[in-house]
TrEMBL record:
Domain TonB-dependent receptor-like beta-barrel: 243-709
Signal sequence range: 1-26
Compartments it resides in: Cell outer membrane
Designated name of the protein: Iron complex outermembrane receptor protein
Occurrences of domain TonB-dependent receptor plug (ranges): 49-158
SUPFAM superfamilies noted in UniProt: Porins
Membrane-related topology note: Multi-pass membrane protein
Major place of residence: membrane
UniProt keyword DNA-binding present: no
Pfam families membership: Plug (PF07715), TonB_dep_Rec_b-barrel (PF00593)
Organism: Microbulbifer hydrolyticus
Family label: Belongs to the TonB-dependent receptor family.
Gene3D superfamilies: TonB-dependent receptor, beta-barrel domain
Entries under PROSITE patterns matching the protein: PROKAR_LIPOPROTEIN, TONB_DEPENDENT_REC_3
């Protein structure tokens, strides 16, 4: 592991000049090494990171291994103004926010505001999108609207998960890891040429398991693991190059997650018995069977590339994905089972076809294409509220069933190109026209369920609805780039993104008739000013961006408690999505890396954002008037500041090379919902230390990784069903006075050993 290679593997931008007081002169930095060029595909063609007028963080697979990053959520620490977390009550569903824009409700049929891509194939739903890191070439995080090249649902940004190419000589690698909470991971990959320089096949798999961070407490499931991991994933690949001009890549991936249900930590006393909260925030009193969970995801993709000539390449990407999920949520986390929601089978199916024409000339370079997507999301869940424990017992059990299906057909035409006027000036222009058709079929019913019986009786309400709606949008992008020198680029850009409107699959048109109405698309327009530079003979790299988001027609999701049987208590809740208003986000980002000496480097990322609602028009139930409630609303999952600072030291040791890395990541206060709740997490800092030794022949690697070394307790999500009602913002359901939190990983230590041959 040469030092030059390692710095190529850590392409965070550079300006330790400010943080460490280091002068950016060759005399002060006594080293002969320089940072290597970083190649990204943020504009769907290979370019140097320093030439792309987009805010991008790129981390390669080797760097992810060196830093002990095991899952996609940990990448957020390396990228400013980015939040990636496991969604509430789940292990593998992703909650993603970039610059204050994302999707905090992971319900099927809802679309994220941050697009996730596996080898340029769009991952349409957040379910199973919290990807484990194995056999990865690199991960790119693109910040800001990417609507021109990546289409709808990338209004916050995009995350690109790029797998390794198998072309080349035969190779294989195996990695074993053991650690805290009985962690036992095996990762292996390999490829072999079947026909020299013409045909290759490869495979990779990962078996990931550990015990829970906590356990189930109580007589029903005493000792069962809570927050454990049991994942098996594999990928099969084939690459063919029949001629010098033609290349075909076929990939199949499959992931199966058999982890237990993730029970929540009840922060309020027991509703019936008044039991105090448990001592360990990773423990739960949930009364639901923890083994009642299964998440599956698989995909098949064929990429065909044909070089028409030296300047033009044609590319076709054909892909299909499908997945299903069976799980449950215990909204009160009590043994008595007051408020339980078993999910039946949630399934997603999607097919996509993209054609690209990539052109590279002396003056004009870019990409144009066509895109088609057909996706279907189906889900169903029950919600049972045990009424006899807090009323007169006349209705022993109130149950509701919600079933919803949302189909999406998208079509788009796009183009994006850069024209180089001269050595100093260039301009990038692009646009995308998109058309989406959404069709929904929903059903909601409520009934009394006899205690101890499995049959539904005495149906109270039953409603269904069918509808369809079409949305269209044009998303432009314009950028002007000025190369002040060979190593310094300044850019100013305007970009637009949109997230398609649709239907709420939880609509209860009996309680809220308006909930069946489609909601419109939301739109973000962003202006950016940026600089990308390499200083001190290439030993300092500085990338910085200032941005302003203008966010209109925002989707605000509300959950309103409803009283089915008229006794004054919430039996269930009804969801509704409304285009409630507008918001803005003004901020800045700094990414930096510096080679301080031949052996020591420092990296720094800083993100600052002032994200706030400007207008949210809601009904004030006290005055019966629609009023602006913006002052009462907050932007979720968006800390005002994020900071990451790390030092890395390389030295020779035991005949090989030793890398030591210390890293501190700070995140400011985080709101979990669009109103302030007791779940909100105050600012915190996580400390990590990594040590990696590489043998003289560079085939053996030994790693030791410590995460969250101070054992910080921090919430990442939760449910605030405590009946909050200020008369202006939507009233919150009161379901057994439940305040349920889900927490990030405690302190862990992992040792890994890998062999490459």
């Amino acid at each position: 592991m040469s030092q030059t290679k390692r710095y190529f593997l850590h392409p965070l931008a550079a300006a330790i000049t400010f943080s460490c007081g280091i002068s950016a002169t060759a005399a002060d930095i006594e080293t002969t090494r320089a940072l290597e060029e970083v190649t990204v595909t943020a504009q769907k063609r290979e370019q140097s990171l320093q030439d792309v007028p987009v805010a991008v963080t790129a981390l390669t697979g080797d760097e992810l291994d060196n830093m002990g990053i095991q899952a996609l959520d940990q990448v957020a620490r390396q990228s400013p103004n980015v939040t990636l977390e496991a969604s509430r009550a789940t292990n593998s569903t992703l909650t993603a926010y970039i610059r204050g824009i994302g999707q905090q409700d992971p319900l099927w049929g809802f679309e994220p505001g941050v697009g996730v891509y596996i080898d340029d194939v769009y991952f349409a739903r957040p379910q199973a999108a919290l990807l484990d890191v194995f056999d990865v070439e690199r991960i790119e995080v693109l910040r800001g609207p990417q609507g021109t090249l990546y289409g709808k649902n990338t209004i916050g940004g995009a995350i690109k998960y790029v797998t390794r190419s198998i072309a080349g000589d035969a190779s294989s690698k195996i990695n074993l890891a053991v650690g805290s909470h009985n962690q036992r991971d095996i990762k292996a990959s390999g490829s072999i040429p079947l026909v020299e320089d013409k045909l290759w096949v490869g495979a990779a798999f990962a078996s990931l398991s550990r015990d829970g961070y906590g356990e189930y407490v109580g007589p029903q499931f005493e000792g069962e693991e809570n927050g454990n991991k049991d994942v098996f994933a594999y990928r099969l690949s084939m690459e063919a190059q029949p001629t010098d001009a033609l290349n075909l890549v076929l990939n199949y991936d499959n992931t199966s997650d058999d982890s237990n249900l993730r029970g929540g930590y009840r922060m309020t006393p027991g509703f019936v018995d008044g039991a105090a909260p448990l001592n360990n925030v990773h423990d739960t009193r949930s009364g639901m069977d923890p083994t009642n969970q299964q998440v599956n995801s698989e995909g098949l993709a064929l990429t065909v590339s044909y070089d028409v000539n030296e300047s033009i390449q044609f590319k076709s990407i054909t892909a299909s994905r499908e997945g299903d999920q069976q799980t449950a949520i215990d909204f009160d986390s009590e043994q008595l089972g007051l408020v339980e929601a078993p999910f039946f089978v949630t399934s997603d199916e999607q097919f996509s076809q993209e054609f690209q024409l990539i052109f590279t000339g002396e003056k004009l370079s870019g990409v144009a294409g066509l895109y088609y997507f057909d996706g279907d999301a189906f889900g169903a869940f029950d919600l049972d509220v045990y009424k006899s424990l807090y009323n007169d017992g006349t209705n022993p059990l109130i149950g509701t069933r919600t079933i919803g299906d949302v189909n999406t057909v998208s079509k788009a035409l796009f183009a994006n190109g850069t024209y180089q006027f001269n050595d100093a000036w260039s301009m990038t222009l692009g646009g995308r026209y998109s058309k989406d058709e959404k069709t929904t079929n929903g059903f909601f019913s409520s009934y009394n369920v006899l205690a101890g019986a499995g049959d539904f009786n005495n149906q109270i309400t039953a409603t269904d609805f069918k509808d369809s709606v079409t949305f269209s949008d044009f998303s432009p992008r314009a950028s002007v780039e000025y190369f002040a020198s060979e190593d310094v680029m300044l850019f100013a850009s305007f970009s637009k993104g949109f997230k398609s409107g649709g239907f709420d699959p939880r609509a209860n048109i009996t309680a809220l008739p308006q909930s069946a109405e489609p909601f419109d698309s939301e739109v973000v327009e962003t202006v950016e000013l940026g600089v990308k530079s390499e200083l001190a003979d290439g030993r300092l790299r500085l990338n910085a961006t200032l941005f302003n988001n203008d966010y209109t027609d925002m989707h605000v999701k509300t959950s309103v408690g409803i009283d089915i049987d008229g006794d004054g208590n919430s039996d269930s809740f009804a969801g509704q999505v409304i285009n409630a208003g507008s918001a803005s986000g003004l901020g800045g980002e700094l990414e930096a890396i510096a080679l301080l000496t031949d052996n020591l480097s420092a990296n720094l990322t800083v993100g600052i954002i002032n994200a706030e609602f400007d207008e949210v028009m809601l009904l004030n139930r006290a005055t019966e008037q629609v009023e602006n409630a913006a002052d009462l609303m907050v932007v979720s999952y968006t800390p005002e500041s994020t900071v990451n600072f790390g030092l890395t030291y390389d030295t020779s040791a035991f005949g090989g090379e030793l890398m030591l890395n210390a890293n501190a990541s700070y995140r400011g206060e985080v709101h979990m919902y669009e109103i302030e709740t007791l779940l909100d997490q105050e600012g915190y800092t996580l400390f990590d230390i990594n040590a990696v030794w590489v043998s003289p022949a560079q085939n053996w690697t030994l790693g030791l990784h410590g995460k969250n070394l101070t054992d910080e307790e921090y919430r990442t999500s939760g449910y605030p069903f405590t009946g909050i009602d200020d008369g202006t913002t939507p009233a919150q359901p009161n379901l057994a006075n439940s305040l349920i939190g889900y927490y990030g990983a405690p302190r862990t230590v992992t040792a890994s050993l890998s062999y490459q041959f």
